[in-house]
Amino acid sequence: QVQLVESGGGRVQNGDSLRLSCEASGRSYPLYAMGWFRQGPGQMREFVAAISWDGKYTYYSDSATGRFTISKDNAKSTVYLQMDSLKPEDSATYYCDWTRISDGTPYGLDYWGKGTLVTVSS
Fold first, then answer.
1. b/e string for 95-117 if b means 16 or more Cβ within 10 A?
2. What is the CA radius of gyration of the chain?
3. Per residue, what are the HEC states of the chain?
4. Phi-psi region for residue 72, left (φ > 0), alpha (ψ -120 to 50) or beta?
């Protein structure tokens, strides 16, 4: 059984920073990437960032490029998302998921945790 626990969300002001954490346990996919996705109210879930199993490769959405940084600590089975220069449009529930990268496109394996809510006020 796959378990993913996201944390670190909160309510911040425009321009602030947050660091999200995702701890994975249970069944794992050692050679797969781990990704962050988000879903705003009334919106579809969208890709934010992903990191390869060995940490060598990172992938970002256009909106995340230059502001967000994904990293991982394999010893802690934890993936992080450092979010800087947050904007109100970044407000969403953020989820992590095991991710398959195919031709440079990330696909979540649909193992979703409860997510962590990020609210950015203007």
1. bbbbbbbeeeebebeebbbebbe
2. 13
3. CEEEEEECCEEEECCCCEEEEEEEEECCCCCCEEEEEEECCCCCCEEEEEECCCCCCEEECCCCCCCEEEEEEHHHCEEEEEECCCCHHHCEEEEEEEEEEECCEEEECCCCCCCEEEEEEC
4. beta
Burial zone of 27 (CB within 10 Å; 0-12 exposed, 13-18 middle, 19+ buried): exposed
From the CB of residue 40, how many other CB atoms can be counted at a distance below 10 Å?
Answer: 14
Residue-wise pLDDT for 56-110, tens only, equals: 999 999 999 999 999 999 899 999 999 999 999 999 999 999 999 999 889 999 8
How far is residue 100's CA from residue 105's CA, in Å, rounded to a whole number?
8
Give the integer Cα–Cα distance in Å for 113 and 77. Answer: 15
